[in-house]
């Protein structure tokens, strides 16, 4: 990959100043979008939607009342839950109207902290997608911002009221770290204790890229090996710790029955909304980025192997989850596609505006008011 040009002059602001500006911008965006946080928090606190409840796990890790260890695979996601620990103590208690009277305060505070982590992760994922599109793919600022916005929107197709946004954030971060194999490996080797879907996405994507192309093996080989090592560590942890629950995931004899049951659920209204719609949205963006060349200077194209990540994740979801999980599982691959898709969308919007500008110019000339 060609290094991106350095647009920073020697007399430009220092690293500390740039970092302070970025933190200030992130804080401003987080405050401006705070109504989304309250939507997430209320959905979780009132139990409006079925979800994986990590509040007892967080309370158990903190030694607070109401704590309980979850079953497999949730109990392995230790780091994802620990991230919420500081917010459990730092955030002010937010009593909501019409809360269930039997909801203990520690559980509410744990839910509040977990909701805050998901909210921040969605915004951070957008920022990281912007950074990747800008510095790794050489996109102009407006197009890179569109990539970040796309990823923020796509996070809402995941289980944003649980830990999915944090996993998507880590996947986006790992994409940014690809040119730095050491840092990539360091973050990837934490994935077994963060979220196994991080490993699955990169194992599928990097395997497809490295198997079909010798040049990709040379470029991405170390990242591929780090991912496979992380996968091996996760499997070893599952075999050694062997938390109870969801035993069907390890029962290979029942995989076909699970697939049939899950496919039958697709025909329902919930199946169409939670499985089919997210799949079509992401597949559409991926095909958009693959079929069209996009703007000049874009350094990463979606190749055919990348497109195969989506059906591969569909198969994983059909085998290892139940009923209405396919859409959110597939959406973990969104960081792979937002940059190229944003490039094409921006190019199309730009080309659509040019005829309009030309028509307006011609009208101005005919009326004698054309600019000099």
UniProtKB/TrEMBL annotation:
Q: Which controlled-vocabulary keywords does the entry list?
A: Membrane, Transmembrane, Transmembrane helix
On the tree of life, the source organism's domain of life is Bacteria
Q: Which residues cross the membrane?
A: 23-41, 74-91, 111-132, 144-177, 183-208, 220-243, 263-290, 302-323, 329-347
The name under which this protein is listed is DUF2029 domain-containing protein
| Source species of the chain | Rhodovastum atsumiense
């Amino acid at each position: 990959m060609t290094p991106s040009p350095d647009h920073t002059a020697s007399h430009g602001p220092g690293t500390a100043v740039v970092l302070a500006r970025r933190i200030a911008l992130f804080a401003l965006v987080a405050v401006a979008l705070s109504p989304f946080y309250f939507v997430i928090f209320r959905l979780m606190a009132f139990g409006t939607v079925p979800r994986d409840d990590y509040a007892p796990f967080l309370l158990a890790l903190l030694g607070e009342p109401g704590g309980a260890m979850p079953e497999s695979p949730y109990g392995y996601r230790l780091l994802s839950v620990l991230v919420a620990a500081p917010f459990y103590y730092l955030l002010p208690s937010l009593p909501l109207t019409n809360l269930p009277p039997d909801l203990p305060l520690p559980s509410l505070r744990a839910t509040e902290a977990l909701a805050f982590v998901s909210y921040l992760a969605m915004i951070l994922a957008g920022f990281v997608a912007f950074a990747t599109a800008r510095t790794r793919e050489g996109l102009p600022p407006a197009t890179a911002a569109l990539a970040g916005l796309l990823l923020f929107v796509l996070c809402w197709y995941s289980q944003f009221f649980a830990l999915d946004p944090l996993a998507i954030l880590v996947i986006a971060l790992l994409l940014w770290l690809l040119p730095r194999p050491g840092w990539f490996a360091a973050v990837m080797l934490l994935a077994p204790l963060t979220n196994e879907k991080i490993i699955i996405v990169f194992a599928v994507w990097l395997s497809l890229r490295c198997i079909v192309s010798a040049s990709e093996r040379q470029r991405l080989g170390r990242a591929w090996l780090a991912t496979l090592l992380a996968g091996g560590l996760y499997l070893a942890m599952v075999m050694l710790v062997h938390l109870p629950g969801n035993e069907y995931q390890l029962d290979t004899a029942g995989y076909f029955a699970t697939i049939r049951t899950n496919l039958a659920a697709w025909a329902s209204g919930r199946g169409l909304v939670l499985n089919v719609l997210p799949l079509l949205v992401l597949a559409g963006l991926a095909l958009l980025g693959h079929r069209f060349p996009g703007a000049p200077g874009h350094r990463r194209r979606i190749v055919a192997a990348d497109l195969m990540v989506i059906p591969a994740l569909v198969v994983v979801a059909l085998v290892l989850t139940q009923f209405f999980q396919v859409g959110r599982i597939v959406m973990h691959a969104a960081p792979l596609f937002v940059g190229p898709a944003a490039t094409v969308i921006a190019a199309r919007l730009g080309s659509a505006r040019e005829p309009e500008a030309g028509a307006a110019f011609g009208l101005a000339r005919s009326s004698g008011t054309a600019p000099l």
